[in-house]
């Protein structure tokens, strides 16, 4: 039985009810986060809360009166009350329910706060390029809104892109803008490797400031020995890359071996991914800034 948290109480998921007048239901008016945990250890907990609060501020939702310590207690309780060793803590905050459907922001309304666990990929203790399966991805021009730096619950654009790839047997859809520049995946940030240089697009309103992306960059720079840069990447570079990776909190860092039905380089998982993933693994539980 799944136990969830809703507006101050833990309960079986079957008992969790929200009003059909909730703006999250009517408008997708909310912010969400997914905080990964493995064997009870969180990855980037404070970073995820910071991003969530930044998102709430960006769209004018009043932050719930819940401290960092209380968020941690809620998250730990959810881990204890649900089964699994590789779980994401899904946090979902909407503007709330004013009892009617009306576009303008309501005044003096209490946000709806929901949290649950969701299974995520097992943590790769020892990454091995010889045995690691690679992902298959397809590409598409990015048709989403122009504030993708906000982690909004209104994900229809992302869902449609993901479904386009999924319906063709793909694991992710890699997106590019009208200038043929890489933006991100429908549910991930994207990284390429060329001549042993690890490259990812710079953050702007086209791209979510991914926590795994941040932790990866900080881990690589902490150890040194890796060339890491954030710059504009054209799709010709992506298609001709030595390696392509996707990063998010559910999978951490995974390699892509086919793109639009064609192999990435030789179609095998690359050696830079193995070294970079091992570096990330050594630091991701400790980096929280």
UniProtKB/TrEMBL annotation:
Protein EC: 2.6.1.42, 4.1.3.38
Biological process GO annotation list?
amino acid biosynthetic process; folic acid biosynthetic process
Can you provide one Gene Ontology molecular function annotated for this UniProt record?
4-amino-4-deoxychorismate lyase activity
Segments crossing the lipid bilayer: none
**GO cellular component terms, semicolon-separated:** cytosol
List, alphabetically, the InterPro entries matched: Aminotrans_IV, Aminotransferase-like, BCAT-like_C, BCAT-like_N, Class-IV_PLP-Dep_Aminotrnsfr
Pathway-wise, it operates in: Amino-acid biosynthesis; L-isoleucine biosynthesis; L-isoleucine from 2-oxobutanoate: step 4/4; Amino-acid biosynthesis; L-leucine biosynthesis; L-leucine from 3-methyl-2-oxobutanoate: step 4/4; Amino-acid biosynthesis; L-valine biosynthesis; L-valine from pyruvate: step 4/4; Cofactor biosynthesis; tetrahydrofolate biosynthesis; 4-aminobenzoate from chorismate: step 2/2
Tell me if Transferase is a UniProt keyword of this record: yes
Which superkingdom does the taxonomy of this entry point to?
A: Bacteria
Query: Which cofactors does this protein require?
Result: pyridoxal 5'-phosphate
Question: Which keywords describe this protein according to UniProt?
Answer: Aminotransferase, Folate biosynthesis, Pyridoxal phosphate, Transferase
Q: What role does this protein play?
A: Involved in the biosynthesis of p-aminobenzoate (PABA), a precursor of tetrahydrofolate. Converts 4-amino-4-deoxychorismate into 4-aminobenzoate (PABA) and pyruvate. Acts on leucine, isoleucine and valine.
Q: Family membership, please give it.
A: Belongs to the class-IV pyridoxal-phosphate-dependent aminotransferase family.
Q: What is this protein called?
A: Aminodeoxychorismate lyase
Source organism lineage?
A: Bacteria, Pseudomonadati, Pseudomonadota, Gammaproteobacteria, Oceanospirillales
């Amino acid at each position: 039985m799944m136990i969830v948290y809703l507006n101050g109480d833990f309960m079986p998921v079957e008992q969790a009810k929200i009003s059909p007048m909730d703006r999250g239901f009517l408008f997708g008016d909310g912010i969400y986060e997914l905080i990964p945990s493995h064997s009870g250890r969180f990855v980037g907990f404070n970073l995820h809360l910071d991003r969530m609060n930044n998102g709430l501020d960006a769209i004018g939702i009043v932050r719930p009166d819940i401290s960092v310590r209380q968020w941690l207690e809620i998250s730990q309780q959810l881990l204890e009350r649900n089964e699994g060793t590789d779980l994401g803590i899904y946090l979902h905050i909407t503007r709330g329910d004013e009892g009617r459907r009306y576009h303008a922001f309501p005044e003096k309304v209490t946000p709806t706060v929901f949290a649950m666990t969701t299974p995520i990929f097992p943590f790769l203790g020892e990454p091995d390029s010889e045995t690691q399966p690679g992902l298959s991805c397809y590409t598409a021009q990015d048709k989403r809104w122009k504030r993708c730096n906000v982690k909004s619950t209104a994900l229809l654009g992302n869902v449609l892109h993901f479904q386009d790839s999924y319906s063709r047997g793909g694991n992710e859809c890699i997106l590019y803008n009208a200038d043929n520049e890489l933006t991100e995946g429908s549910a991930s940030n994207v990284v390429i490797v060329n001549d042993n240089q690890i490259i990812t697009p710079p953050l702007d309103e086209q791209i979510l400031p991914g926590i795994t992306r941040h932790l990866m960059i900080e881990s690589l720079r902490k150890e040194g020995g890796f060339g890491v840069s954030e710059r504009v990447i054209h799709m010709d570079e992506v298609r001709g890359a030595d390696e392509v990776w996707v990063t998010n909190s559910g999978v951490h860092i995974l390699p892509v071996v086919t793109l639009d039905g064609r192999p990435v380089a030789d179609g095998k998982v690359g050696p830079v991914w193995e070294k970079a993933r091992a570096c990330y693994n050594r630091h991701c539980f400790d980096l929280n800034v």
